[in-house]
Amino acid sequence: MATNLESAYHLSQIAHPLLKSSGVGNIVFISSVAGLVHSATGSVYGATKGAMNQLTKNLVCEWAKDNTRCNCFAPGFINTLLVQEVLGNKEFLEKVISKTPLRRPEEPKEVSSLVAFLCMQASSYTTGQIISVDGGMTAFNFSFT
């Protein structure tokens, strides 16, 4: 079974010729705050997200000559169906809120807005960035320990 990291790498390699020929290629990866700071998701999950961050930076160095940009966003807990069960645990939700300066989980539109921006001409000089979309969680050094 392929990991998300392996899938991202292989898909990027397949797409690269098309991105290169377009003259304005752009890749936006999804990571996690777990790739930046310790979180309750565990060491292996955090390591794979950290590797996704590094893949972003390496591809920028390899593909900038082809005018292909690559960025990554690192969300915290997005209020989606995928995490509603976890956030439904009142004790866990209280921990998340206590470690998030904006005092709430993020909404999907807050993440999608960043992705849209990274795909626009307005961000044409933004590349190689790992952008936390986390309500300040990483600034607070989010950890359950």
Automatic annotation (TrEMBL):
GO terms for molecular function: oxidoreductase activity. Keywords: NADP, Oxidoreductase. It comes from the Eukaryota. It comes from Actinidia chinensis var. chinensis (Chinese soft-hair kiwi). Pfam families: adh_short_C2 (PF13561). This is Tropinone reductase. Gene3D superfamilies: NAD(P)-binding Rossmann-like Domain.
